[in-house]
Amino acid sequence: PEAPRSIIPVWKLETGDQITTKIYREPDRSSQTTVSQTGDAYFPGLGRVMVEGLTMDSLRLELTNRYDKLVIDAAVDAVMMRDVVIYGQVRSPGVYSVDPALTVLGLVAKAGGATGAGKSALLTLVKGDGRQFRLTREVRLSSLDIVHGDAIYVQDESFIGRNSAGFGAFTLIVTLLLSLTGLILIVVK
Fold this sequence. Notes:
By secondary structure, the chain is of the alpha+beta class.
């Protein structure tokens, strides 16, 4: 099935997410922090704030309300980054820190692009529990329910690309059989 997606961003902060905040007119209070195992993050002037489960809009509102007590007309901008695994037929499979506004195609490009023989690739969201969903390349990551432990798998869409491992083994077996047949014919003569 196709991956369920939302018209509004669905990513909520969870352990391991990175948050970059900018407090305008107060650069000393700007920061980069990571959501801890206990679900909180440290912000200069505020200390530890429970953030796990908040959307980015909720976090911006919460930080603005808290910084308003310290800074007149606080203007807060916050951006999150999440580590997403991409593997399969890409040039550089691995874990990439991504902004939720990135598209699936942007993530594939970040991993060096697809390496298959075909012109396009099959994209699959693999959930931590093993469920799999088809992805379209233009969908924004923030509209997908991607959490830590999920991954995106890239597979060549062409028949040869999808079965290249099998063809390699088949070619090896045929080569061995032809070599053996040639040796037998030489020995018999």
